[in-house]
Design goal:
HTH-type_TetR-like_transc_reg; 0% strand; mainly alpha; AcrR family transcriptional regulator; TetR_C
Length: 201
């Protein structure tokens, strides 16, 4: 037995975990993080709230587990044949993702929650680290094709390409549209071509 709220969920069936995760995402989309409750998730998922409390402990545990599952899912990595096209498609994916009426509110809720909750912040950090590693393949391909210098830090190029979009979306509140996405991709690519992201060792 584990103390309720002291451990991440474990020893559960995949069906139960997925039902709770789907309910967590649906509640986030409808009510935001502030409206997230264990009772609401239990009701929507059909899983008894005692089970939810025992396995997930709190809304923070539920949000973190939902991010855990999402981090292991495949990300649609662009493959246009050029690093320029790939980076442009990648930054556009970020913009369209946050603009999506279904996925956008969920992603926004996770980012907002991470500012206030350490457990969610750690889970979100791990989620984005996984996404950056997955996306780094487009930079690795570019190095192999000779489009970028040897020793270029692939993950850092991806991080720098998408960073301006998150700055607009969550810091300044400025619009982040396709033109902004293209400019962010072009800036990161120019820096990469200039060797800014090459390892010094």
């Amino acid at each position: 037995m584990t103390t309720p709220g002291s451990a991440r969920p474990g020893g559960r069936t995949a069906r139960t975990r997925e039902a709770v995760r789907a309910a967590t995402l649906a509640e986030l989309a409808e009510k935001g993080y502030d409206g997230l409750t264990v009772e609401g998730i239990a009701l929507r998922s059909g899983v008894h709230k005692t089970t939810v409390y025992r396995r997930w402990g709190s809304v923070e545990g539920l949000a973190a587990d939902a991010l855990d599952l999402a981090g292991g899912e495949p990300w649609p990595i662009p493959d246009t044949g050029t690093v320029e096209g790939d980076l442009r498609e990648l930054t556009r994916l970020v913009v369209t993702g946050f603009a999506d009426p279904d996925a956008g509110p969920i992603a926004t809720a996770f980012v907002s929650a991470s500012v206030r909750n350490p457990a969610t912040a750690r889970a979100l950090h791990a989620f984005y680290a996984a996404r950056h590693r997955q996306s780094a393949v487009l930079i690795t391909r570019a190095i192999e094709r000779g489009e970028l210098p040897e020793g270029t830090d692939a993950v850092e190029v991806v991080r720098v390409a998408v960073a301006p979009l998150y700055y607009r979306l969550f810091i300044t509140g400025e619009p982040a549209d396709e033109a902004v996405a293209d400019r962010a991709a072009a800036s990161a690519l120019a820096a990469a071509r200039a060797g800014v992201f090459q390892s010094s060792t």
